[in-house]
């Protein structure tokens, strides 16, 4: 790929091989006030055994839409450690929650409430699998590989496509897949999507809070890999208006009882509960999701809840194989590609397994 803005990573390589004199580099990452990801790095004198060994840190929240300038310090509390696929060795990525100076969770920290819910329902062993769709743009904000001033041929050959003109940036996708595996993210697959230059990666099944953690790190790795290729990643749910598919984050769900023979009964019960809170769910299923949930392009309208076996035009789909066996999982097709995964897995757990007194997923969005 030729580009005017790419930094010269071939020169970087020889420096990455230099010994670090025992130091460990910890890249602290967090979700910012616009659902983007930020990071900064810290030198540690030795490798931590767990997050408890990692120091709390802080940053200027007024520069990330997370705090006013007059009280700008936001605290970073380490919650999970991953291996660093860019720096290798003992170097790590540290996923953090953001906390305010007054001891309350930062407004971009939806993980805290979600973790309380998951903890309260730990005995149910809720699993999630998220299918993250995304779109590639070049440095000039043009969909990658699309003809200048025009459009590619209509959708059809691109989904799971093979060959020049059918897929774009397979190198980025492949690099991201390897980087995620190395980091320790539970990435379960990838495929090219219906719209040209749109791809999907799947993460899961992950139990409880780990879903949001692995997805957040996987997104970070994607931005970071794409940066080296001079390509931008968009998580917008309808990046191109018209006859082009939008981008979602289908969320697959099961509990221990759904995964046992006879589990269909529990799947149906869960779907009944979901149908009664449709609008509360839609409210946390991503910004601009109304542009995507139109009832066309393999979506159900946001206006009403629906479900069905093998139906990709429904809000919730029971996979054919699950209906046949009588147990397994279901797929919530409503979440948009730009969701906060803690909000989505949180409200699903709340609806299906029950609310708890001190964690209200919807309320924290409206504060
Ligand atoms: P689709 O046919 O909708 O494109 P994918 O194969 O892309 O499905 O994604 C399926 C997702 O379902 C994966 O993320 C996988 O981890 C997840 N999954 C599989 N089994 C379960 C389960 N029992 N509970 C929750 N998620 C599951
Ligand atoms: Mn999929
Ligand atoms: Mn898909
Ligand atoms: Mn799906």
TrEMBL record:
One molecular function GO term is: glutamine synthetase activity
The UniProt record lists the GS catalytic domain at 110-367
Residues annotated as domain GS beta-grasp: 24-103
Taken from the UniProt entry, a GO cellular component term is: cytoplasm
The region annotated as signal peptide is none
Q: Which PANTHER family match?
A: GLUTAMINE SYNTHETASE, GLUTAMINE SYNTHETASE 2 CYTOPLASMIC
User: What protein am I looking at?
Assistant: Glutamine synthetase
């Amino acid at each position: 790929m030729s580009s005017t803005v790419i930094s010269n990573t071939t020169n970087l390589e020889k420096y990455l091989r230099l010994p670090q004199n025992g130091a460990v580099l910890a890249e602290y990452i967090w979700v910012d006030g616009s659902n983007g990801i930020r990071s900064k790095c810290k030198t540690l004198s030795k490798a931590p055994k767990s997050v408890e060994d990692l120091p709390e840190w802080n940053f200027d929240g007024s520069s990330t839409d997370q705090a006013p300038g007059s009280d700008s310090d936001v605290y970073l509390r380490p919650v999970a450690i991953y291996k660093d696929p860019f720096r290798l060795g003992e170097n790590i990525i540290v996923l953090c929650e953001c906390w305010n100076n007054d001891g309350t969770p930062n407004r971009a920290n939806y993980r805290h409430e979600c973790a309380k819910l998951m903890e309260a329902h730990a005995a149910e062993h809720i699993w999630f699998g998220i299918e993250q769709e995304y779109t590639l743009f070049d440095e000039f904000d043009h969909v990658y590989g699309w003809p200048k001033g025009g459009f590619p041929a209509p959708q059809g050959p691109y989904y799971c496509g093979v060959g020049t003109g059918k897929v774009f940036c397979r190198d980025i996708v492949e690099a991201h897949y390897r980087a995620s595996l190395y980091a320790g993210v539970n990435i379960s697959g990838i495929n090219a999507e219906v719209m040209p230059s749109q791809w999907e990666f799947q993460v899961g099944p992950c139990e409880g809070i780990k879903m949001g953690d692995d997805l957040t790190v996987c997104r970070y790795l994607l931005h970071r890999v794409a940066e080296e290729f001079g390509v931008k990643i968009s998580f917008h749910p309808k990046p191109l208006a018209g006859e082009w598919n939008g981008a979602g984050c289908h969320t697959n769900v099961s509990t221990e009882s759904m995964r046992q023979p006879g589990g269909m009964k529990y799947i149906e019960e869960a779907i009944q509960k979901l149908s009664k809170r449709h609008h509360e769910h839609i409210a946390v299923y991503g910004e601009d999701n109304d542009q995507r949930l139109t009832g066309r392009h393999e979506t159900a309208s946001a206006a009403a809840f629906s479900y069905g076996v093998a139906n990709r035009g429904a809000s919730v789909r029971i996979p054919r194989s699950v209906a046949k066996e009588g147990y397994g999982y279901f797929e919530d097709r409503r979440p948009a590609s730009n969701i906060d995964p803690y909000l989505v897995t949180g409200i699903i757990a709340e609806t299906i397994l029950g609310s708890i007194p001190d964690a209200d997923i919807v309320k924290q969005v409206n504060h």
